[in-house]
């Protein structure tokens, strides 16, 4: 059983531009993989179909046994609990502490204060920010800010984590650190799908790589092939 499956998915925007054309692939539980391709290849669009910021024009996106076409209205918010999202610009609340930013998804789903505190501390330790819980995002470095974004995305223990160019604003050393952090997540059973145009960085990770070119899935490279 896959966590995520794209079945001949196409996406045509109202402008008439076809951003994805007949894309099919499946992601296994606990798998980490990348989607790469030049700017405009369709990476963001692919991720948007997963967290329901966009809808396919043709084909089906399946999350577990659920066809996302049928997830509408109030169920969209429920679906998003199962999918953690990391953005390039991390989208943190500037006037809230690191801990408050990370707590937000748990507050929204009505967890008890004590439970929230425990889980936020646990996840901040996991991303190496246990000592910065009370800081404001603006007091952190770019790499630390992205760690907060990742902590917020995983605090609800989603089945799938998707990240859109999570290292786009970081230098090579910090990028490698962030990638290593993603790599540690599948141990907990969370599948991880990272979109990045940085092919060199992606190849170093030695994971499965989906390659998009003008909306078409032109390659699906296994880790074994990358090792050659
Ligand atoms: P990538 O993330 O690989 O850079 P995107 O998925 O953002 O690619 O975009 C794929 C193509 O679809 C691009 O040509 C882009 O301009 C176009 N596109 C993206 N979003 C929209 C939109 N809302 N309306 C029309 N075209 C869009
Ligand atoms: P991202 O790649 O992270 O989606 P972009 O800067 O490419 O960020 O796009 C910002 C917003 O503009 C997105 O919501 C995207 O869907 C939309 N967009 C991107 N390209 C186009 C386009 N050619 N026409 C209309 N909207 C677009």
Automatic annotation (TrEMBL):
Record localization: Cell inner membrane; Cell membrane
GO MF annotations in UniProt: ATP binding
Domain named ABC transporter: residues: 4-228
Domain of life: Bacteria
Gene3D superfamilies (UniProt xref): P-loop containing nucleotide triphosphate hydrolases
Membrane protein topology class: Peripheral membrane protein
Any GO BP: cell division
Quaternary structure and partners: Homodimer. Forms a membrane-associated complex with FtsX.
Family of this protein: Belongs to the ABC transporter superfamily.
Role: Part of the ABC transporter FtsEX involved in cellular division. Important for assembly or stability of the septal ring.
Protein name: Cell division ATP-binding protein FtsE
Organism: Lysobacter cavernae
Source species taxonomy: Bacteria, Pseudomonadati, Pseudomonadota, Gammaproteobacteria, Lysobacterales
């Amino acid at each position: 059983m896959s966590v995520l499956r794209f079945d001949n998915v196409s996406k045509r925007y109202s402008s008439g531009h076809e951003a994805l054309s007949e894309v099919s692939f499946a992601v296994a539980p606990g798998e980490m993989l990348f989607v790469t391709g030049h700017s405009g290849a369709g990476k963001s669009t692919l991720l948007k179909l997963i967290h329901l910021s966009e809808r396919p024009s043709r084909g089906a996106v399946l999350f577990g046994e659920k066809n996302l076409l049928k997830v509408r209205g109030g169920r969209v918010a429920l679906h998003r609990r199962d999918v953690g999202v990391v953005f390039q610009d991390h989208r943190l609340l500037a006037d809230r502490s690191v801990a408050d930013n990370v707590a937000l998804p748990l507050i929204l789903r009505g967890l008890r204060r004590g439970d929230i505190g425990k889980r936020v501390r646990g996840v901040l330790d996991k991303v190496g920010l246990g000592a910065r819980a009370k800081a404001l995002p603006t007091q952190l470095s770019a790499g630390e800010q992205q760690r907060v974004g990742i902590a917020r995305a995983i605090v609800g223990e989603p089945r799938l984590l998707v990240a859109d160019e999570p290292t786009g604003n970081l230098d090579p050393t910090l990028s490698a650190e962030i990638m290593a952090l993603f790599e540690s997540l599948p141990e907990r059973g969370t599948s991880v799908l990272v979109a990045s145009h940085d092919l060199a960085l992606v190849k170093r990770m030695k994971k499965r790589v989906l390659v998009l070119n003008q909306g078409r899935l032109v390659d699906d490279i296994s880790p074994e092939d990358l090792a050659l």
